[in-house]
Amino acid sequence: MPNHQVKKAIIPAAGFGTRLFPATKVVKKELFPIIDQDGRAKPIILAIVEEAISAGISEVAIVVQPEDIPLFSYLFKSPPKPELLCKLSSANKEYSEYLQSIGNKITILSQTEQEGYGHAVFCAKDWVNNEPFLLLLGDHVYQSDINISCAQQIIDIYAQVNHSVIGITRMSAALIHKAGCVAGVWQNQKSWLSLTEIYEKPSLEYARQHLQVEGMPTDEFLCVFGLYVLTPRIFDWLELNIQQNIRVQGEFQLTSALEQLRQAEGMTGYVVQGKCFDTGLPDAYLQTMIDFRR
């Protein structure tokens, strides 16, 4: 019987942040500031963790470079120094206590070698311990268009379909070479897709031939949103790719393992009612700082 309870989340945060250099020489990109709708400045990673917790997640693993473990541990597990704490407003003192309570739900894991996104996810295999889990990108923040968080929407669909779910969004043809794209057949009055293919960064020619979805304009495709609920069998495919040294552009990627998992178990794509904001590129980060505050 499938395990419907999704209680764990993984956030890979072990990249070098080369596209935001030289700022990332001194500040990890996951720790860049963002202003939320309440006007509070917080590290990006905190906004991502809060997205997971909003969906009922009780344990969060953050995968980082070994030398960054103390940095992330300090953020979530250490109170401010007394000389700083006494200067905080009452509201910020309360928020500091809230931050420590979040820290109790967080485990810091390490990726000793930066071998790609799929490899970072694989580093959490033992921690996941054969349970379904929520996967969130470490350089994206999310904002729902309805009163249910984006992460909760994905988890709700998983509970209905009993197999892995990928959050998807509509994207113009001009941008698909930068994203993972999917094809499939609409189900449940076009509220989600039964996926028939997952493909990383397709050319427009390939997308028009293989990834067009019924009822959508010819210049629009369905691409990965950046939220997933995955069954633990994803680790079998990640491990196989690592053992056989199957790389894409020199790294072990998640997308190839997702396609293998789809073929083995089936997979659903759900068009998330919300927005995903990129913080991993200079111009995208600048725009996110404006839009996420609204």
Automatic annotation (TrEMBL):
The record's keywords, sorted A to Z, are: Nucleotidyltransferase, Transferase
- Keyword Nucleotidyltransferase present in the record's keywords: the answer is yes
- Give yes or no: UniProt keyword Chloroplast: no
Matching entries from Pfam families are given as:
NTP_transferase (PF00483)
Q: Which reaction is catalysed here?
A: alpha-D-glucose 1-phosphate + UTP + H(+) = UDP-alpha-D-glucose + diphosphate
What stretch or stretches form a coiled coil here? none
* Domain Nucleotidyl transferase as annotated: residue spans: 8-289
Tell me where on the tree of life, at the top rank, the source sits.
Answer: Bacteria
For this protein, what is the EC number? 2.7.7.9
**Molecular function via GO:** UTP:glucose-1-phosphate uridylyltransferase activity
Q: Name one GO biological process term.
A: UDP-alpha-D-glucose metabolic process
**Which top EC class is given?**
transferase
Q: Which family does it belong to?
A: Belongs to the UDPGP type 2 family.
Name of protein: UTP--glucose-1-phosphate uridylyltransferase
Tell me the organism.
Richelia sinica FACHB-800
